[in-house]
């Protein structure tokens, strides 16, 4: 069994479902392990709790 941890912003249930499906399918194809052998764990982070280059993500303007 293979576990993948994904950290990112809060997502809707539909987006989580889409991401888990896409990641599982891609990893299965590359590693040649059945999709049932993958576990995906999503950790949602508030932009106030993430820092990049000394600044909070919530305060950085993304182009």
Lateral arrangement of strands in the main beta sheet = 1-2
Oligomer: single chain
Helix content: 25-40%
CATH-wise, what's the superfamily? Macrophage Migration Inhibitory Factor
CATH topology: Macrophage Migration Inhibitory Factor
Helix vs. strand class: alpha+beta
The proportion of strand residues reads 25-35%
Kindly provide the radius of gyration, computed on alpha-carbon positions and rounded to a whole number of angstroms. Answer: 15 Å
* Morphology call: elongated
String of helices and strands = EHEEE
Give the name of the CATH architecture. Answer: 2-Layer Sandwich
What is the mean pLDDT?
93
The CATH C-level name is Alpha Beta
- For the record, the count of structural domains works out to 1
Low-confidence stretches: none
User: How many DSSP-defined strands?
Assistant: 4
Task: Report the major sheet.
Answer: 2 strands, parallel
User: What's the helix count?
Assistant: 1
State the end-to-end distance: 38 Å
Question: Care to describe what's here?
Answer:
The protein has one helix at 13-31; strands spanning 2-8, 38-44, 51-52, 55-56. With 63 residues, the protein is α+β, with helices and mostly antiparallel strands. The chain has one domain: Macrophage Migration Inhibitory Factor (2-Layer Sandwich), CATH 3.30.429. Strand 1 (2-8), helix 1 and strand 2 form a beta-alpha-beta unit. 0% of the residues are buried. The model has no long low-confidence stretch (mean pLDDT 93).
């Amino acid at each position: 069994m293979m576990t993948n941890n994904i950290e990112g912003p809060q997502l809707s249930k539909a987006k989580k479902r889409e991401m888990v499906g896409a990641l599982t399918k891609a990893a299965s194809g590359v590693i040649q392990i059945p999709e049932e052998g993958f576990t995906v764990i999503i950790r949602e982070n508030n932009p106030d709790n993430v820092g990049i280059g000394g600044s909070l993500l919530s305060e950085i303007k993304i182009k």
